[in-house]
Amino acid sequence: MKYPGMRSVFILLFCCIASCCFSQQQEEFRRVKDFYNHHRVMLNTEFRKKFDAETGTLNKISIKSDFQLFMRKMDSIENVALIGALLKVKNLEDLDRIQNKIPKPDSHVKVSSSTDQPADYPGGINALRQEVGHLFYAAGVYSEIKTVKANVAFIVERDGSISNVHAQGENFTFNRQAEIALYSLSEKFTPGHINGDPVRFRFQLPLTMNIED
Fold first, then answer.
1. 12, 174, 207 from 3: Cα distances, Å
2. Measuring CA to CA, which residue among 189, 124, 178, 180 is closest to residue 149?
3. How far is the C-alpha of 203 from the C-alpha of 155, rounded, in Å?
């Protein structure tokens, strides 16, 4: 006996499971950032108490210098944790693709590049660039040339989360920081639509950074 609604229910269930998987992967980056932001707040509170209690000008300058040094070290340690999260997420995506026999993101069968309504970030492309710039850890980029570029391709899923972030450029460290910044976005996209139905959408974002001496 055939049940007319079973196929649509199965497809819906698969989409929900896939969306949950992608959301959980992005959560890896949120957990790291929440952890280190919490410790930044505590450090700021303790240094502020010490700074306010000090009366000598030279000692205040020393405390401020120590605080800035601690924050730079915190940024560096957080970046190591984010690189670990990036490796974990990419491994999970590869494993999910193998287990579910999902074609690679460049397959035109599963991913749309033209839609009735393309995927969009809240506030538009300028808001997306601004947030990526804010999240980008420039100190993690090592380059002998002053201008580095990458084209960051990723998939906007049906629920607005992103997956399969891949930066292509000549500088590996710039590519890595670009991927971390994209996975760390605070908002979801509005997904692309075809005939009113949400679809997976291939998105590309060119990035350029000028390194100052």
1. 15, 52, 50
2. 178
3. 6
For residue 156, count other CB atoms closer than 10 A to its CB: 26
Q: Are strands 162-168 and 197-199 parallel, antiparallel or unpaired?
A: unpaired
Give CA torsion, residues 17, 180, 84, 171, to 10 deg: 130
Distance from the first to the final alpha carbon of the chain: 72
pLDDT at 213 over 80: no
Tell whether the model's pLDDT for residue 125 goes beyond 70: yes
What is this structure's pTM?
Answer: 0.80
d(CA 86, CA 88): 5
Residue with structure tokens 């209690």? Answer: 53
The two beta strands, 162-168 and 147-156, are antiparallel
In the chain, what are the domain boundaries?
6-210
- Tally of CA atoms within 13 A in the half-sphere of 8 that contains its CB: 3
Strand pairing partners for 190? 120
